[in-house]
Amino acid sequence: MKSRNRTTIAAMAVAALALAACGDGAEGEAADADTGDGEVAGDPVELTFAHYYAEGPEVAGEARLAEEITERSGGDVDVTVHWAEALGGPTELPELVTQNAIDMGIVATHFIPDPFPFYRLQAMSFWASDDEADLRRQAELQDEVFSMDPFAEELAEQHNQIALLHQPLASYYLIGQQPGCTLDDLQGARVRSLGNDYPRMLEEVGASPVSLTTGEMYEALDRGTVDFVSIPMQHMLAYDLHEVADYACGPIFIFGNGHTTTMNLDVWESLSDDQQQLIEETAAETQEWFLEHAVDQEESYREELEDLGVQFDAFDEADFEEWQERSPDFLAEWLEDMEERGLGDDAQPVHDQVRQIVGE
Q1: 37 falls in which pLDDT band (50, 70, 90)?
Q2: pTM for this predicted structure
Q3: What's the whole-number average pLDDT of the chain?
């Protein structure tokens, strides 16, 4: 079996890239044997998949994708996931996949937008309305926008990758020790923020954005160094924030995409037709499963948080509309930037499709 499981790769990008040349490739001529249950035509291959998340419910789709590919191929396409930045962080993984230091990785433009003019739409903030409706609208963006030619071309031509799977990422809430569901509550408030868009949304209503890692949020709320934290419900539970925050307001916004699982294009092209078909079919089925899993989880998260004493509220319609009116039109700004880059002809249909889906 030709191996791509480089267990000696160090956690950081430099070490992983240095060892890239030591691994055998996934190249090989397709096997002549007929396929049967648990078998696919093609040379057996081991694929290294590096992730920046720790294994958990929010990345259950990626875990399922790896397991199903391995199982359905009878182990002939063996995908091993290295979790929690074991082979690199979110700013490093795209280049590691490009250079074929690893076979599969994650593109998360929340952390590294500049090399991905189209894919940075992952990190664009859209106003939320309802947990399930928001996730299904995000799935529509994933299906109808991120599948458009400019996205595939950007990955293939500039980064030597193909996309396999998109992560559903639920809506963000404001949580704190006091209610925070009016614009008056946000005036002068210190609010944990993230990305490029959301800080500007907060500033428009007089709030002060604060940068915090997930690991810093509990202490910041407990000590009162921030008034509110912006976070999805699943992270409220994962980081025990319900212990230091009694109120949750929202949903406020949702991103265009969580992140995208990709594969090195050379590795992909070295696989047999049967192996590619198996991966494509498994990824498509996993994408559908991932959405329904996320929807089900959101409902259970809210019930669990309410049982733990968290009180949920939502913005008054008039306040929420005023906040939206005062905030920038990020999609229009993106299109203007793409026109300045000379990418306007490809960006305009993307802009129009996003606008149709999100209704903003």
Answers
A1: low
A2: 0.87
A3: 90
**Where do we find the tokens 């920038």?**
328
CB neighbour class for 129 (10 Å; exposed up to 12, middle 13-18, buried from 19): middle
Percent of the chain that is helix, strand, coil (3-state, to 5): 45, 15, 35
> Which residue reads 């889906």 in tokens?
357
Domains 13-169+256-296 and 172-254+299-330 share a fold: yes
| Pairing status of strand 190-193 against strand 208-211 | parallel
Distances (CA, A) of 310 to 126, 179, 221: 25, 11, 14
Structure tokens at 261: 């699982």
Q: Which CATH class is domain 13-169+256-296?
A: alpha beta
| Between residues 13 and 255, the one the model is more confident about | 255
Query: Tell me: the pLDDT tens digits for 229-278?
Result: 999 999 999 899 999 999 999 999 999 999 999 999 999 999 999 999 99
Q: Residue 35: what pLDDT?
A: 39
Q: What CA–CA distance (Å, rounded) separates 234 from 84?
A: 17
The CATH architecture annotation of domain 172-254+299-330 reads 3-Layer(aba) Sandwich (3.40)
User: Which sequence spans correspond to the domains of the chain?
Assistant: 13-169+256-296, 172-254+299-330
Q: Which two tokens stand for residue 240?
A: 């025990």
Q: What is the DSSP letter of 314?
A: -
